[in-house]
Amino acid sequence: MSTKDIREMSEVEIEKKLRDSRDAHVNLRMRKQTGQVEKPHEFTNLRREIARLETILKEKKLAAATA
Prior knowledge:
Layout: H1 3-8, H2 11-33, H3 41-66
Helix pairs in contact: 2-3
């Protein structure tokens, strides 16, 4: 998901996507422990997506607080 797409989402949508991404990360870690991970690059992609979501959510909350 690109930054542009995330910026177009509302805060509620971003929070939902963030929860889903964190759940996916936990599931991926569990699969890694059992040796079922076929695409190890998914870890990096998920961590980056979570960071993007958190950053943009914080920006939106700060903008709303100052407005």
